[in-house]
Amino acid sequence: MLCRVGEWFLRSGIQESNGGVARYYRSDLGKNARVSTEITGYAVSTLLYLAERTGNGNYSEAAIRAATFLTGVAWDSSLATFPFEHSANCDQPKPLAYFFDCGIIVRGLVAAWRATGGQTFLDTAVEAGASMIADFQASPVIHPILLLPHKQAVAYEPKWSASPGCYQLKSAMAWHDLFEETGEARFRLAYDAAVESALEAEPAFLPGSTDREKVMDRLHAYCYFLEGLLPYADRAECARALALGIDKTAKYLHEIAPSFARSDVYAQLLRARLYAAHVGSVPLDEASASCEAARAAEFQLGGTGLPACDGGFAFARRGGEMLPFVNPVSTAFCLQALALWSDYQNGTLNARRQALV
After folding, report:
1. pLDDT 10s digits, 265-305
2. Which of 106, 193, 201, 217 has most Cβ atoms within 10 angstroms of its Cβ?
3. Which residues of 15-52 are buried (b: 16+ CB within 10 A; e: fewer)?
């Protein structure tokens, strides 16, 4: 499984020649979506995870290309932020910066720093992390989107990605990563504030809609909240939120999946179970974990003869039909969840939080 996924990242064309990674591949149209700075950040972490697991230097090289794209091309030094998408032609995206995207990118750059010692990766991550505090963090919430160049907060919308919410804790975890690497208290304090805000906001996040497909989408985001708790999983309040959140996610997923299911939700839920069990916060429900692993594996594509598809994971299934989106983030989450599940079955689980994609 690792090799098939790794080959997809290296050979599918999802990573373009400049190092940037496309948001997804449209199998029905035969083309990539625009390069996404967020997805490139995820790709850095994923490729380094593959390199660590396999010892294959090709993954490290691809990760460094992606990280160098982020620091050398995507990073706007004059604004000290990462615009959310990148275009090399006249089809320019709207000038926005997302808190969530910036946090994922920072975590990718910190991973690159840990793996290579490249000072530019850490320096950019520190500057971006400080900018996230200055630009996005406003009591009592974190603004999700800013309009560039003046960094004005965009009016909130009902959809989860355009509103503040507990899901933002996954990206706020970048501050904790920076605190671990630099010892700077400002980053720990920012993460602490984000944890407090997320715990307060969590009860209102689910179901959040009467549309079952939108609830499934919100489960994906809700799992970001669970992942963002992991640095403090040994604290009673966070351990309790993890336990209740895992059960809540599983309930909604089981109810909605027959009509609409996202591969990343299966993978994120499985990862949350394994990480929480590894640190002793929540006992592992092995039967549920086994089922989630089997369901996630069903989304891996193969047998098409197309490098752009084979080995990657489909984003979602509606009814019995896979949707035509081969998604690098879905692929990354499923890869890691299934690798960790295999480790658990073999008695070798070492769910190192810093390696969480």
Report:
1. 999 999 999 999 999 999 999 999 999 999 999 999 998 88
2. 106
3. bbebbbbbbbbbbeeeebbbbbbbbbbbbbbbbbbbbe
For residue 155, the tally of other CB atoms under 10 A from its CB is: 8
H or E element: which one contains 269?
helix 263-278
CA distances from residue 292 to 4, 89, 274, 334 in whole angstroms, order as listed:
20, 41, 12, 10
- CA dihedral sign of residues 317, 157, 89, 87: negative
Cα(23)–Cα(43) distance, integer angstroms: 10
DSSP state of 261: E
Q: Give dist(CA 223, CA 237) in Å, integer.
A: 17
CA distance linking residue 22 with residue 144, whole number of Å: 22
CA distance 157 to 161: 8
Place of tokens 């603004």: 143
Query: 2-355 has which CATH code?
Result: 1.50.10.10
| pTM, full prediction | 0.96
Three-state DSSP class for residue 199: helix
Q: What three-state secondary structure class fits 299?
A: coil
Report how far residue 83's alpha carbon sits from residue 147's, in angstroms, rounded to the nearest whole number. 10
Pairing of strands 152-153, 35-36: unpaired
In tens, the pLDDT along 218-251 reads: 999 999 999 999 999 999 999 999 999 999 999 9
Helix, strand and coil in the chain, % to nearest 5: 60, 10, 30
**Does residue 145 come out as left (phi exceeding 0), alpha (psi in the -120 to 50 range) or beta?**
beta
Q: Where are the domains of the chain?
A: 2-355
